[in-house]
Amino acid sequence: MVEFSGKLPKASASTITIAALFITICAGSIMSNVSIYSSAFSAHTRLGEFIRRLNLGTEDDENLIIPVFKVTEAERIEWFMKKLPRLGFLEADTVAAERFHARILEFFGEGCRGKFYMTWFSPVKYFRRRDFWAMESLFKAHPDGCLLLISNTMDSMRGYRVLNPLIQRGYKVLPIFPNLPFLVENTPAETWLEMMKNGTKDPGVHFLMNLSNLIRLAVLYKYGGIYLDTDVVLLKDVTGLRNTVGAQSVDPKTRKWSRLNGAVMIFDKGHPVLLKFLQEFALTYNGNKWGHNGPYMVSRVVARLEMRPDHEINIVPPEAFYLVYWTRIERLFARPENGTERRWAEEVMGQLERLSYGIHLWNKKSGMLRVEEGSIISGLFYNHCIICGKSQLV
């Protein structure tokens, strides 16, 4: 049964500070990162792979997987097949799969209060201060949480340098090179992967986004836990939620959810709804239609499963993670200029701190917006950062 409560548990408001100073990520020394990197790999990685990973991130533009838009389907498939040999995470390898699984089990072994996942399929140089803040907010709310960053570029020397400020402070974050054949093994998405590899399925122009859509479903099905997009800033502890997705919008008349979103997904290992998501992803894949295999897919499946007790999930209302809709997100980045705007900002800030578990920043819309001092985002940063200092969050 799908439960849409329409309300959230009460939560105390945090002290609101409307002023923020931002800091650039400080890179650690090469030698300290070699030590961290070597320790992370010593048990499960062969020397050749270790050396290859060291080089990843230094020339990681070559690892971009962005299909060209203005080509035919046949031309795009041809492009993908040429790219395929360089995408090591799509190839089946028993030894690599065992190593991947062992690293995850070891990482989540002891002392983790919450298993968290993020994905990153862009060059390391594009991992910006704002993405780093998302990780900070996670650990601010869950100091004993463990974050697995599934990425084809961050599991590298350059990636570890980016993550080092958190690692040095004792937070548990592990970048890991994905193994997609292992993750989708014995799921409906296994057939989809084979079709992609043999050139019978168009990857589409949104392949990277859909790769993230698939991996979040597969890793949650395989291990259970909490998935977050890198543009989700957590404001409160979410470990009390189970088998949960968030409503992005509701019908103003019926107050029933009208659109769900997968930027935050919390599920037990092996939950049957995840299997339905994987099946829908594989059967209806369309890599050229934005959102079709992401929020629209989640909405389609849950709508069909309503009133089925064997597929029970919890749907939290928009204020949980999507209080501010993407069409209005820029207002959170601007400093209020008059009394009306200040009152609106104070009201939204109060709602966020009282009612929301987190806030989705809609990076596709807000990614290049400058954070103005005195804005809502600047205040949230100061309340939910770990490395708080003087710099600009852009």
Automatic annotation (TrEMBL):
Keywords: Membrane, Transmembrane, Transmembrane helix. The keyword Coiled coil does not apply. It comes from the Eukaryota. The chain crosses the membrane at residues 12-31. The keyword Transmembrane helix applies. Residues 267-388 form the Alpha 1,4-glycosyltransferase domain. PANTHER family: ALPHA 1,4-GLYCOSYLTRANSFERASE FAMILY PROTEIN. This is Alpha 1,4-glycosyltransferase domain-containing protein. The lineage of its organism: Eukaryota, Viridiplantae, Streptophyta, Embryophyta, Tracheophyta.
